[in-house]
Amino acid sequence: MAITFDKALGIHEHALAARSQRAQVLANNLANADTPGYKARDVDFQSMLKQATEASQGEGMARTHPSHMDVSGSGGSPELLYRTPHQPSLDGNTVDAQQEQTRFMRNAMDFQASFEFLSSKFSGLSKAIKGE
């Protein structure tokens, strides 16, 4: 029985990609905190992860003929959602810099946790291959 990376690494591979994309969106929000009329955006991490795992497990739609369109969604960008502000500013900007920094740091910590887990998995796999 062959071991694939999907089986060995689990969901953390997809979590790293989703966290990286979310970090870009949150950083963009922080960069535009003083831009009049800018609307804060975010991605739904749970739906991104669900979509990625379904695509890797073969659930959902599959291409049964080469001329069919690829609808797996694995290569597309995540759907950007607008955030509902707690207190929008007078110039129409909905970015709360403190909230965005908190979200960005939380996302960074979650990214680091998944990265550490993957690092330990690779270390374990490497030891198993070497017979240590």
Automatic annotation (TrEMBL):
Region annotation Disordered: where it falls in the sequence: 52-94
BP terms from Gene Ontology: bacterial-type flagellum-dependent swarming motility
Domain Flagellar basal body rod protein N-terminal residue range list: 11-39
Keywords, ordered alphabetically: Bacterial flagellum, Cell projection, Cilium, Flagellum
Presence of the UniProt keyword ATP-binding in the record: no
GO cellular component: bacterial-type flagellum basal body, rod
Top-level taxon of origin: Bacteria
Keyword Cytoplasm: no
Xref: Pfam families: Flg_bb_rod (PF00460)
Cross-referenced PANTHER family: FLAGELLAR BASAL BODY ROD PROTEIN FLGB (PTHR30435:SF12), FLAGELLAR PROTEIN (PTHR30435)
NCBIfam families per UniProt: FlgB
Annotated family: Belongs to the flagella basal body rod proteins family.
Record protein name field: Flagellar basal body rod protein FlgB
Organism listed in the record: Marinobacter segnicrescens
